[in-house]
Amino acid sequence: MKPYYITTAIDYSNGDPHVGHALEKVGADALARWHRLRGEPVRFIMGMDENAQKVIQAAEAAGRTPAEWLDAMSERFDATWRRLECSHDDWIRTTEPRHVRGVTALIEAIRARNPDDLYVGEYEGLYCVGCEEFKSESQIRDGRCIEHPSRDLIPTRERNTFFRLSRWRDPVLAAIRSGAFRVEPAIRRNEVLRVLEDGLQDISISRGRLPWGIPFPGAADQTVYVWFDALINYLSVTGYPDAGYDGLWPADLHVIGKGITRFHCIVWPAMLLAAGVPLPHMVWAHGYVQWGGAKVSKSEGTSVSIDSAIARHGPDALRWFLLREIGFENDGDFSFERFDARYDGDLANGLGNLVARVTAMIEKYWNGVVPAGPAPAEPLDAAGDRCLAEYTAAMDAIDLKGGAAAISQLVSEANGYIVATAPWALAKAGEDARLDFVLGPLARCLLRLSVMASPFMPAKAQAMWTALGQERSPEGAWRVAQQPDVAGARIAKPENLFPKPATS
Ligand SMILES: [Zn+2]
User: Fold this and answer.
1) 291-323 tens-digit pLDDT
2) Measured in angstroms, how far is the CA atom of residue 140 from the centroid of ligand 1?
3) Class of domain 335-482
4) How far is residue 328's CA from residue 24's CA, in Å, rounded to a whole number?
5) Ligand 1 mean position to 352 CA, how many Å?
């Protein structure tokens, strides 16, 4: 069975990772975990874009050689994503020989299959080093790049190799319209369709006189334009052009930010079509994390460090906040006030309190062994089925905010059930049979929640799972979420999952 192959955009090695990058990584990780949860084999790839001009500028500014700088950056980014519990299976760096080989092979495949698609010409235009691309009129506001208003655009004139992108407009348009190549969400698809309908210009894909980058095949004095090179990482990491690369390719999902849809939804499919390589199934373009209404970006001075955000309430809570509050479709504001409010409301007073109450009652009233309860027909079981169905539909639609909301909904149903059934009153009245009937469904609900929470908060979900006397991990335990059975399990007193910070 071909693994579900999911990628994130690769990061520039020009500074520290910030929460703007983190949304994409934890969102993609939650999706990778969602597919693993249901027993699918998954291949999840992240990596670094190391051939950009601005990488070299950053290395120089730091007084390091490019190689030293790149190694340090690669380690820092990878370690940061691991701290946020990202479960990537491989880490591709575009300075690696396997990538250089893939880039060379793809360009040669285009040349062999469609020789007219590569031609030499002269280009003159305004270049944004932030984007590493020439900007067209519609991408410039007040003489500045819309994505990088603090940088100067550089007038540039070069003799380069061009890729005949214009020729691939109709096939790309047809692939998107037919759904063979999906661009989601719809707002991004419509933007991409408008660009395609307006017509495409050919793009320059080599650069002269740059001291850094991949040599352009057949043009020794030129390097491959960094975007053309970077996109190919998704393919080179599969082992392309070696036989067997199609055991992984085509990608099922490229997760990217909304600012780079032109490359991923127009240039990339055109490159693949020209080379005779199948198209990926889907590109998902998420919105931006904002800070006081501005895009979080190091170059714009509006970044929030991941260390400070993790220090606030821990990595699981940060993942939860980004996906529950900001979500994976539109822009959303990051603020520590909102982070604190989500932490207190959803986690400390919500899920954490529920786990503490239920396990304490089983400990106190039932000697720490989960009672059987009735057959799963209690209102809480039915509510669990409903929330699980909503959760499933949302996760399949890459609506991570909706998936998280379904978890919160079930937590609130369970807390309401405790209030309505008042187990402590049943215990006091010595009504063991009815108490059994209440604690059983509550324990089932917790077990189900631990599985549902695992793509969002892997460590806390594991702690819940273990507290319910379960072995191994909730990963792959989708059947347990559908039909939770925890009767007879011995409760292990859980840690305080979401402690209240001393300051709040
Ligand atoms: Zn720019």
Assistant:
1) 876 666 655 555 678 999 999 999 999 999 999
2) 9
3) mainly alpha
4) 8
5) 43
Encode pLDDT of 388-422 as tens digits.
999 999 999 999 999 999 999 999 999 999 999 99
Residue-wise burial string across 453-484, b where 16 or more C-beta atoms lie within 10 A, e elsewhere:
bbbbbbebbbbbbbbbbbeeebbbbbebbeeb
Distances in Å between the Cα of 230 and the Cα atoms of 195, 271, 469 are 22, 12, 46
For the purposes of burial, counting CB atoms within 10 Å of the CB of 281, is it exposed (0-12), middle (13-18) or buried (19 or more)?
Answer: middle
Q: Could you tell me the CA-to-CA distances from 415 to 60, 319, 320 in Å, in that order?
A: 57, 23, 20
Q: How many CB atoms lie within 10 A of CB 182?
A: 17
CA distance 103 to 97: 10
Ordered by start, the domain boundaries in the chain are 4-310, 335-482
Structure tokens at 58: 């950053």
Query: How far is 369 from 362, CA to CA, in rounded Å?
Result: 7
Q: For the whole prediction, is pTM greater than 0.85?
A: yes
**How far away, in angstroms, is 144 Cα from ligand 1 center?**
8
Specify the pairing of strand 282-286 against strand 182-184: parallel
Residues 6+ apart with CB under 8 A from 403: 30, 34, 323, 391, 394, 395, 452, 455, 456
User: Which residues are tagged catalytic?
Assistant: 18, 21, 128, 131, 145, 148, 295, 298
Q: Which CATH architecture has domain 4-310?
A: 3-Layer(aba) Sandwich (3.40)
Whole-angstrom distance, CA of residue 47 vs CA of residue 171: 29
**From ligand 1's centre to the CA of 138, what distance in Å?**
12
Spatial separation of the C-alpha atoms in residues 393 and 403, rounded to whole Å: 8
